[in-house]
Request: fold
Amino acid sequence: MLDLLPTDRPALVLAPMQDVTDLPFMRVLARRSLPDWFVTEYFRVHPDSRLNKYILRSISENETGRPIFAQMIGRDIPNLVRTARELAEFPIAGIDLNLGCPAPVVCRKDAGGGLLRHPDQVHEILGALRDAIPGRFTVKTRIGYHTPDEFPALLEIFRSHSIDGLTIHGRTVADRYKTPVRPDFVKLAVDTMPCPVIANGNVVDTATALAFHEKTSSAGLMVGRGAIRNPWLFDQIKSAFLGKPVTTPTHRDLLDYIMDLSTELAREAPAYDTLLHIQRMKKTLVYICDGIDPDFEQAVRRMKTPEEFDSLCRAHLDHSAPLPALPPSESRIFCGFGDLL
Ligand SMILES: Cc1cc2nc3c(=O)[nH]c(=O)nc-3n(C[C@H](O)[C@H](O)[C@H](O)COP(=O)(O)O)c2cc1C
Reply:
């Protein structure tokens, strides 16, 4: 991964987000600002798994000019190896293994973040995948399952497999999204891992990006929900690192973004259905509306039809006031982002 790192600033990466960072989202984001690379939503791996065709489109139809890693989630070694080989047939920058997903249904099966409870199994999986993957092989993890005290032992395992990159979401699985992130544990990894370390969690604006980097000296920053909320964020952060002026988008820019996303999602849906489309927009708007206008937030929760969606977005956003740089300080969605500052 060293060869993908910019020389004049930390790398900026779009976080994988299931049911959000698909091909339409990446396209819409790319029209506003680009990360240095992407990571797909996870490909589920189990004995009967087949590569998800919709997620594959984000690889095979990627026209952004930026590399994309394919992420896998699972615990079954022969099928992880099989899937890595199948994915290698596509134009990917590398394979990433998910060791962080906190969803109970995933953890119960000892996949994603659930694997962090079984360091021996992590050791075995990393060994098998490292042997099987000739190209870049990276890992995305949290800092433990129950407590960050588990992290040093996990780092020892990561160190022993010459992985090409390690992304760390600075929370435990038990923390889910409800705590501030822990830059000190990311720093521990930066100081002890031979590969580039990418810091992740709660980057929502240029100040949180600069602060997370300052506290960790990480090779890069991965941004997820902050980039849904503000798709101009990658360019803004680049400018901030390079000492250039940072642009301030307006509510009307946000309206254009939401409409662009809605159009792309409707066009690319495997089978367009009004209800599903509205549900999908609601899921995305949760991250966008936080702190914009309480009436807008409530109306979005209640909306049922595309017509309602259209008119309420226009009613609340069609004006040129600048967007707030930060979510509300007590935001439940971006919980504890202020602690990075
Ligand atoms: C809706 C949603 C879906 C996610 N899906 C994935 C996923 O498929 N793979 C993964 O490694 N992490 C996934 N994550 C975690 C993010 O990649 C990221 O680690 C987390 O959101 C913290 O970063 P942020 O504060 O910048 O959003 C998901 C997060 C959210 C909110």
In short: Residues 251-268 form the longest helix (18 residues). The chain has a mean pLDDT of 96. The longest strand covers residues 38-44.
